Amino acid sequence: MDKVTIIDHPLLKRDLTILRRKDTPYGTFRNTLSDVSTILAYEVLRSLTVRRVQIETPLEATEGYELDQEVIVVPILRAGLGMIDGFVRFLPEARVGHLGMYRDEATHKPVDYYSNIPGGLETARVIVVDPMLATGGSAEGAISHLKKGGARNIVFVCLVSSPEGIDALQKSHPDVHIVTASIDRELDENAYIRPGLGDAGDRIFGTR
């Protein structure tokens, strides 16, 4: 698929198995999701641009590098919060926005309820994170919201995705690169990813 990257890493495969197991405790799920997000972040941030700078080592002057691009990470609430640590571990200077959406269980459509996004979207690399890309509705809504605010360089990062969600997101936002650890088989009649890993938000926060 164009503009879709599946990250293939042995630790990612191991950790995704832990996350899929239904009897994985909440704390283990939360910590493992953070570890997985670190692997995804490393791959996503590989394409950041740098600029040359002059520095002084203890022995002499030399040339080094600094990042030439601001990064804004935007989790889709609630579950996206579980992926933030993996990104700010590499980029403590990154700014973090928040978009609150929940899925209407009758229509399976996203409903907005909160937005707090930093300025400077026009020139930043904007990374939208959510563990699941199921119907694609929340991702579509979040990205549309960010584009209205001026965002132009957007990547969507998820742990588990469905073919239907990828297709929907690519149709609505063909310019957005999707990075995922797994493309699962399908959505079921309740719009849950199969085999999936259940409701990521509930498993992160122990709410069900």
How would you portray this structure in words?
The protein is α/β, with parallel strands linked by helices and 208 residues long. It is built from six helices and 13 strands. Strands 1, 4, 5, 6, 7, 8, 9, 10 and 11 form a nine-stranded mixed sheet that branches. Helix 1 packs antiparallel against helix 2.
In this structure, how is the largest beta sheet organized? Answer: 9 strands, mixed
Number of strands: 13
Q: For the residues shown, what is the average pLDDT?
A: 92
Task: Determine Rg (CA atoms, Å).
Answer: 18 Å
Helix/strand structural class: alpha/beta
- Poorly predicted runs are none
Whole-Å distance between the termini? 35 Å
What form results from the Cα inertia axes?
Answer: globular
